[in-house]
């Protein structure tokens, strides 16, 4: 391991020696002296917030301002004011001029955490800062300049967000000039026990108690758990055990009580495909679906009756000496006597009901209910009068 990586770990309290972690630190150190934008990705709880500080403290801007902004925690209506500032009177409550983060951090670094949560208009403003270093305060027409290094982080799949139209493609490529991927804890199995010891030691020192220690079976269980909450979850579990358990030697049975969903944590979640999910956009569609289901049930009932009349299926009968509701097949002669006079085979034709037929029938009944008053019928159908006129003409209901 390079000496500078080890120094960074000691300075920022980073525990672990996994190749993925070392690679992320190495990239951060190499990109720090430049002004390139950096996008840090990784699951929630992996420690992404440490890397912007590494970049800032090892850059030429280390004596400038460092501001961390949680984009997901700022309401959409005020985030432009927070980032770019506003003029007095530009909106209700703007009692004075206010400097935004990009003006305050001029010459320094801004860390935009959860950048995937930015509203679309704010994304356009941020893109302008990245391209030209220019921004405009809310309520102002004056263009201002800023010299800010932007480091962003997200646990959202931005490529998917771009494909879904939720994140600007041009902004994504400007932010991710240098990407840094922070590995999840399950890919750093060799670091899990080291982190547990560090958290246990810190907790013992803080609360003045002996540190907890893991038995071998507990150590194996700790490493095999997937840690969906990553380092943050491991720290919480360690502190909880340290405070609650009186025994300082932790066995697998004790540890298992603090690991939620242990039996299902190793298996993927079964998600129903989106194309199989029925989504209704209006009450009318729900009503149509109910009618279709009822029609289907009626057709199935007709088939069942036809099969019973043909003696193909057993029906419930009561026989002497037998308990009530015992299912027995009907004797062929009985079936013959039950048949209608016409002995020719009867084909049961399944009735179909189209959406247009249901809609036409609903409109007809609504007009009859309100004696032809189209305004009332439209209100009853939850549609506009204009739509009702068009449907009446379409279905020849005049």
Note down, in words, how this protein is organized:
- This protein is 46% helix and 10% strand.
- The chain has 398 residues and is α/β, with parallel strands linked by helices.
- Strand 10 (315-317) and strand 11 form a beta hairpin.
- Helix 2 (19-31) runs parallel beside helix 3 (50-57) and helix 9 (189-207) crosses helix 10 (216-224).
- The longest helix has 27 residues, at 283-309.
- Mean pLDDT is 83; it is low at 264-282, 315-328 and 342-351.
- InterPro entries: AAA+_ATPase (IPR003593), AAA_lid_NorR (IPR058031), Homeodomain-like_sf (IPR009057), HTH_Fis (IPR002197), P-loop_NTPase (IPR027417), Sigma_54_int (IPR002078), Sigma_54_int_dom_ATP-bd_1 (IPR025662), Sigma_54_int_dom_ATP-bd_2 (IPR025943).
Layout of helices and strands, plus pairs?
Layout: H1 3-12, H2 19-31, E1 38-41, H3 50-57, E2 66-70, H4 79-84, H5 101-104, E3 109-113, H6 120-132, E4 134-136, E5 143-145, E6 149-154, H7 158-163, H8 169-175, E7 178-181, H9 189-207, E8 213-214, H10 216-224, H11 230-244, E9 249-250, H12 252-256, H13 283-309, E10 315-317, E11 326-328, H14 332-338, H15 355-369, H16 374-381, H17 385-394
Parallel strand pairs: 1-6, 1-7, 2-3, 3-6, 8-9
Antiparallel strand pairs: 4-5, 10-11
